[in-house]
Each structure stands twice: as structure tokens, then as C-alpha cells.
Amino acid sequence: MDQWLNESDGTLVVAISGTGGVGKSTLALRWLHGVRHRFPDGMLYADLGAYSSIEPADPEHILEAFLLALGIPASNMPTGLPQRQALFRSLTSGRAHTFLLDDAVSAAQARPLLPAHGNNVVVVTSRRRLSGLSLEGAAFLDLHPMSIKDSVQLLTKIVGADRLDRERNQAEELARLCEGMPIALSVVGARLSARPHRPVSREVGALRSGDRLATLTHDDSSVSAVFDLSYFALKRPSARAYRFCSLHPGRQFGLSAAAAAVGEEPDELEESLGELVDCNLIAEVSDRRYKFHSLLYAHARQQAERSDGPDEREAAVRRMAEWYLDRSAAADFTLRPTRRRVGSRFRTRPESPFPSHRDALRWLAEERHNLLAMVQTADEHGWDDVTWEFCEAMWGFFLHARHYDDWLQIHELGIPAAQRTGNLTAEARLRTQLIVALTHLRRFDDALGEGAVALSLAANANDEFTKAALLFELAGAVEGKGDLQAALRYLRQAEVLRERIGTERAAALCRRRIGEVLAKLGHHDEAVAILLEVAEYMSTTDRAEYARVLTRLGAIYVRTGRQDASTVLAEALGIARELGSPLYEAGVLAVLGDAAQQQGNIAEAQHHWAAAVEIYSRGGDPKAEELSARLSSLPSPRKSDS
Q1: How many independent structural domains does the chain possess?
Q2: 123 in a structural domain
Q3: Which of 190, 367, 421, 551 has its CA 20 to 30 A from that of 588?
Q4: In the chain, which residues have pLDDT < 70?
Q5: Rounded distance, CA 215 to CA 525, Å?
Q6: Contact residues for 445 (Cβ-Cβ < 8 A; gap 6+)
């Protein structure tokens, strides 16, 4: 604000907005007191009472108080807003005042109280964004919660440095639990001040273990009461949106997910969410995407429990779960259009909202944590079909992103859910998916154990599709244990089954893996011939798989010293980046590092391997550790390599 003041050549108007309790009035007063020496004609203050227990202040009455303060006798007080406004502007013209218009309800309420052009400063605070003041040339400041450092400093001023220094880590945790809200920090600080022997750790424990909003109360100060004032001033549709959005399992959500919760179309809901943003009850983090502050999230849930019945709340959560599942299924269709699926979402192909492979991956990555939370929510509600179908719908994303912790976690919920429905095929397919994660995590015995159970289920269901998929995945587990010949047997059995069933792409995947195993056995010419055949097929049917085949070919070319390795790998890298698949990109980078090392270019090898390690590390892939070990074993690059 100092910069705005220094650059101003007339009356400066600053509009500070933020949620209740974030410290708008405190900031305004502190700043105005700090610059008061530049405004010798004094400071005028008005509480506009937007959230008081009575009606908001009438500008006409505020102007009467201002005029009296400016020396107009009561006997000469004009009547009516226009007359008082004209006199007020005349008296403030060319003078140097500061004004604080606190807790405004709207720009229309504040506008008549703005002084004439001159050396004046007006600060208007409001829980709403007073965009209408832009017509008056106002500067806008959205006040956000404080940082951990600033929060601890505020607590230090209230409680005392000696006390907090003894429990510094606990003080920082206290600041995190209050999430930078000055009103919450002040309540906690007041409680600690009133109990000089109470350890900070006990305050932390109280906030962690109980209802934080109920705990954040001291004497007549309550964080919940501050939030209530904003909530009860909302229009009914916005109040309902506030409550139902809080039923979302994560604090950040998109417009369409919120519309599913409320039971409206997104375009219909946008106005209500706009009011919540204007009132600083939620924040807009990007276009049509919103976020709750954690204390407001708890407050909104509290209001939902008070205002909406359990059946209505459960129906809202179910609508969200169905929306996320439908959208995940559409994304999976985009990623793997030919894959056989058994879930109800896949009985008819949905109209996809994702124009490309990259768009589908981007949405899945953005919603990753919400999807995981929604699977947990579905499980808690006993919605078994929804729970296991999420596992199937997220399969393509797992193959690209390899977030193994997520993968294991949702299958631990999905497999029992499929069991409870009695769907043998679904259970067998989910166990097959789990085998892939276990194999990549080097848990080969666990993978083989899952495979034995899944093979039995597939046999009981007379499901040759799943049996072929199981043989394909079990090949990876036995290969990991070093039995390459057994891997070849599994893969050839799977290939025969898939050719008999008529799943051409799946049979081609078997041939790709056969080529990889043959290369490990040293049969490079045979491996190359098979992989070239698969590459030709995949080049017109599956760009993602085509990139993987090129990567495998490139690795063999590097190993055998062929000069065309760089051309093949460059094409694979381009496709991986085009598709937006970091995992496939990491695979190419690892082979490019091998090629650079073979050519003696140590700096380039380090560059490629380090980039691959960064990608693999995000998902907890053991390949990150392997490549890191190879990186550390490299000699320092010569200057000529740099």
C-alpha cells in the first residue's frame, strides 16, 4: 500500500477484502496509523456494519457523523444524502485526511462516503470484493491467511517469546492448525495467555483431537461465530452451495464436481459459487476451480449437518462419486480405447470430454487426490460397485503415472468390494492389475500369490480374456525372479489365447514382451524382427504403445552398437512428450543415458539419467534408486563433455 500511496497524485482509495477473521481491519488500522504523519487534518472512522446484528449503516447517517467531526454544527446539518454528500466533498477538497470505512456491505454503500479529490486516503474493508469501486479508481488488496512464520510472530506478541521459544516446533504446529487465520491465532493466544502454565503442546493436542471450530473459542470470541456472520448473509442458493460443496472429500474441487453435489448444471451453479468467492468463503484457484480454507471447510460441513438431513447429504456425495467415476471412465477410454473392460460404466462408450490423450492425463493428474479420496469415501459408504469400478477406470492412469502408493491403496479397497458383489471376473481383473504394481515394486512372490488366486477365479468364471491377461502379467513376475524361460512360456500361452479370442492388439502386446525377453536372452536379431513387426502394427493403432516399442528397439540398438539408435529414441521421446506421459518419457531418457555413457559422453548421460530419476521418484518407482546408483558411479565429466 505504501507504493500506491507514493504513486498517487490525488485521493487514494484502497479496498481490502478477505474472509472474516483474516485481519483486514487490523491491517488497515496499522497502516493508517503508520502514515498519519502525512495527513495532518486527521483520521475519520466509520463502522459500516455489514455483518452487525442490526441493519448495515446508512451512508446518510455516517455522513452526519463525519460532518459533525469536521466542524459543522448540528443546527446547520443539511438533510438528505445528496446535500450531505455535497457538503462533505466540499469540506474535504484540498485537505489531507485518512478515512477507514470498515466492514462495508457493498461498493454502493461506500461510494457516497468517498471524499473529494485531494490529498486524502480512504481504506475500505469488506468480506466481499468491492469490484464496483474500480469506477472510483480504487486499488484492490485481497488479504490471504498468514504464513507460518508470520503466524508464529503474531503468537509471540500475544504469548511472549520466552514461552514459545521453549516449544518452537509446537508453536509452528499450532500456527499450521490455525492455518494463518489471525482470529484463530488470537483466540489460541488469548487462551495461552490466560493459562501461563499450560504447555503449547496441550493446545496443539486439543486442536488435533477434537472439533477445531468448537475448540477455537475463548470467552466471547469464537471463530465459528465470525464465519456465521458471513454465512447467514448469503442468498439461499449460495448458502446451499456452500454446504454441499463441503461434502466434497477434498478441499479443492472443480465447478462440475460441485454442480453434481448440488444437483444443478454447472452454468446454473456458477453464480452461487461466484457469490461465495466474492464473500471470501471459498477461493477461486483457477478458471472454474475452487478451494476451501480448512476452517471454513469445517464450518461449512457443520452447517450442512445442521441444515440438511443425512439422506440428502448422502445423495449429494453419491452424485459426486458417480460424476468422478463417469469422468474417469471417459478418460480411460481416451487413454486405452481398445481395452476390454467389465464395469457398468464401460457398457456403452461415453462421449468423451477429453479431445486428446494429453488432456485425459492432465485431468487425471489434477484430480488424482480427489479420486483417491472419492474411492475411500465410496468404500466408507458401502458402495461396492462404485469402489471397484474406480480401480478399473483408473487403470490407464496408473500405467502412465505409476503412483504405486495410490495403486496399492485403492486396490486394497477395490478387491474386497468386488468380492462382496460376487463378481468373480471383476475380482480377478483387479488382482491382475495389482500384480502389475507388485511386480514393478519387486514384490515378485506377492505378485505370484495374487496370480494363483486370480487364475482360480478366472477359471471359475470361465473367463479366457482374464486368464490371458494374467499369464501376460505373471510373465513379468517370473522374469523378475530371473526365470526368463518361464516368462517366455507364459507369454506364448497368453499369445495363443489372445489370438484364439481375436484380441489382435493384446496379442501384439504379448509379442512385444516376447521380443524383450528374447533380447535379455541375447537373441537380438530375433527380438528386433519381432519388435519391428509390433512397431508397424502399433504405429497406426496405439501411439503410446508405439512409443514403448520404439524405446525397447532403441535399447537393443544401443546394446548392439547400431547407429540408428538415436533416430528411434528421438521419435519415441517426441511421442511420449506429445502424449504427456512422463513415465514413458523417463523410459526413453534412461536409454538415452545408456547411449551417452556408451559413447563416453558422461555429462549427457548424467543429464538424461537425472531427468529420468526425477520422474521415477514421483511415483516411488524402484527404477529411481537403480538409476541413482548408476549416476553416482559415473566418473566426473571431462571439460570437453560439458
Answers
A1: 3
A2: yes
A3: 367
A4: 50-54, 210, 219-221, 637-642
A5: 71
A6: none
Residue 443 resides in a domain: no
As beta bridge partners, residue 13 has 122
Model confidence over 236-265: pLDDT tens digits? 999 999 999 999 998 899 999 999 999 999
Residue 45: strand pairing partners: 100
Q: Which of 14, 213, 18, 195 is nearest to 101 (CA)?
A: 14
As beta bridge partners, residue 208 has none
- Of the candidates 532, 525, 486, 484, the residue with the CA atom closest to the CA atom of residue 511: 532
Dist. CA 386–CA 4, nearest whole Å? 54
Question: Same structural domain for residues 21 and 41?
Answer: yes
Q: What is the three-class DSSP state of 595?
A: helix
For residues 88 and 82, what is the distance between their CA atoms, to the nearest angstrom? 10
- For residue 174, being part of any structural domain is answered with yes
Q: What is the pLDDT of residue 640?
A: 46
- Tell whether pTM > 0.90: no
Positive or negative torsion for Cα 453, 458, 461, 466: positive
Question: Quick one: cell of 389?
Answer: 469400478
Per-residue model confidence (pLDDT) at position 51 = 63
| 157 & 203 share domain | yes
CA distances from 460 to 61, 92, 427, 463, 465 (A): 83, 89, 12, 8, 13
Which amino acid belongs to residue 279? Answer: C
Phi, psi of 102 (to 5 degrees): -95, 135
Task: Classify 494 as helix, strand or coil.
Answer: helix
Query: What are 133-168's pLDDT values in tens digits?
Result: 988 889 999 888 888 888 888 888 888 888 888 888
In the three-class reduction of DSSP (H, G, I as helix; E, B as strand; rest coil), residue 45 is classed as strand
d(CA 129, CA 277): 8
Distance (Å, rounded) from C-alpha 149 to C-alpha 186? 15
Distances (CA, A) of 72 to 42, 75, 77, 100, 113: 16, 8, 7, 20, 16
- Tell me the pLDDT tens digit for each residue of 59-103: 999 999 999 988 898 888 898 999 999 999 999 888 888 999 998
Residue 297: which domain range?
226-308
* Alpha-helical segments (H) within 160-254: 161-166, 168-178, 182-194, 200-209, 212-215, 223-232, 236-245
Question: What's the confidence (pLDDT) of residue 94?
Answer: 83
Name the β-bridge partners of 139.
Answer: 14
Residue 566 domain-assigned (yes or no): no
| Nearest Cα to Cα of residue 430 among 417, 414, 408 | 414
Where does 200-313 show beta strands of DSSP type E?
A: 217-218, 221-222, 252-254, 283-286, 289-291
Calculated CA dihedral for residues 583, 585, 591, 594, nearest 10 degrees: -100
CATH number for the domain harbouring residue 277: 1.10.10.10
**Segment 459-475, tens digit of pLDDT:** 999 999 999 999 999 99
Give per-residue pLDDT as tens, 406-423.
999 999 999 999 999 999
- For strand 252-254 and strand 289-291, is the pairing parallel, antiparallel, or unpaired? antiparallel
CATH code for position 187: 1.10.8
pLDDT of residue 220: 66
Do residues 520 and 484 lie in contact, with contact meaning Cβ atoms separated by under 8 Å?
yes
> Would you state the pLDDT for residue 193?
84
